[in-house]
Amino acid sequence: MQKIQQLKEQTVGMDAEALIKFLGAAYAQETVFSTSFGVEDQVLTDMISKAGSLSFKIFTLDTGRLFPETYTVWNRTVDKYKLKIAAYYPNTGRVEELLTEKGPLSFYNSLEDRQQCCHIRKIEPLKRAIQGYKVWVTGLRAEQSINRENMDWIEWDSSNQIIKVHPLFTWTLHDVDKYLKKKNVPYNALYDKGFPSIGCQPCTRAVREGEDFRSGRWWWEDTSKKECGLHITTK
Q1: C-alpha distances in angstroms, 192 versus 39, 122, 146, 179, 198?
Q2: Catalytic annotation, pick one of 118, 200, 203, 228
Q3: Which CATH number is 164's domain given?
Q4: Taking the model in full, what pTM does it have?
């Protein structure tokens, strides 16, 4: 896609902070940043807050099944950076229908049931959150999973008709950790307890020594399918 190629040529060699500033200048109010308050997103929030008067819209998806520690770091983030973070919630009727029909733990039953839950709690609210925007900034890194290694730092999301930009795409978890500590960035307390990737409470456990980065997410499933659907991109 010509637009993606042009944007890559304009930003090649930029570090994460420079890329964020470029987007703020080139796309102004057309850029949206999604945060789950994971460590990568906290790094980007810190960079965005220090970039000056960027008019990025920042939002989060509250699935209704988050860890208490996630709400704590959410509150600490708002207090520290004085940023407005828009909250998007699942459609109440859809959640009520799902739990009435299948109960509160249906996502353990099959991949299809888990994907249904993710769609209701994440995908539909996401589509509302990014509607009307041209650029979606995320905290994705290449080393997080096999699927993400096949992505690129700038790509076209055909399902959502939006340009996705991943400023930390080439960063390692060590790079993220170093930035957090050096810049005194607030982060989820679960990170220090073996949770490098944190989602909904019933679907996330600590990662054991020697396990893959995302092995704690949907641990009962095939490791090749560990995505909720937010970041399945077609170039």
Answers
A1: 11, 26, 24, 15, 12
A2: 228
A3: 3.40.50.620
A4: 0.90
